[in-house]
Design a protein that fits this description.
The protein has 128 residues and is mostly helical. Helices cover 49% and strands 0% of the residues. The chain has helices at residues 7-14, 26-30, 41-50, 53-57, 61-64, 70-74, 81-95, 116-126. The chain starts with 6 loop residues before the first helix and ends with a helix. Keywords: Iron, Iron-sulfur, Metal-binding. InterPro entries: 4Fe4S_Fe-S-bd, 4Fe4S_Fe_S_CS, HdrC_iron-sulfur_subunit, Helical_ferredxn. One of its GO terms (molecular function) is metal ion binding. This is 4Fe-4S dicluster domain-containing protein. Pfam families: Fer4_8 (PF13183).
Length: 128
């Protein structure tokens, strides 16, 4: 049994079809976390399509995504890059054996420069 996460695993978890992407970049152009990401939403979609899952799993982008779905709102083809990012983040968490944050860990990590949207997203994500 292999622990390697495949493109098919990410596609199954996310329910997204990255083949619909026409590489217009509108998703990245509207992303509020664009400057913080090493792989931007349009690159993320392309890398999933190419099967470069290991690189994405090591990316800081999976933790910088605000899950605000601005990328989906701007996508003319409804590709949903944020769902792909979330699927990769979930795959990392699963590989770590559920060794991840709880909702009680979030307040200690807050700082004055953190966007309100990130705080809400974190609480929504870790709240049971």
């Amino acid at each position: 049994m292999s622990n390697k996460v495949t493109r098919e695993d990410i596609l199954r978890i996310s329910g997204v079809d990255p083949r619909k992407c026409m590489k217009c970049g509108k998703c990245s152009g509207t992303c509020p976390a664009y400057e913080e990401m090493d792989y931007h939403p349009h690159e993320f979609v392309s890398m999933v399509l190419k099967g470069q899952i290991d690189r994405l799993m090591q990316s800081k982008s999976i933790y910088k995504c605000l899950s605000c779905f601005a990328c989906l709102e701007r996508c003319p083809r409804n590709v949903e890059p944020a769902k792909l990012i979330e699927a990769v983040r979930l795959a990392v968490i699963r590989q770590q054996g559920m060794n991840h944050m709880t909702e009680n860990d979030v307040p200690a990590l807050l700082d004055a420069e953190m966007p309100q949207q990130a705080i809400v997203s974190a609480m929504r994500k870790y709240k049971k």
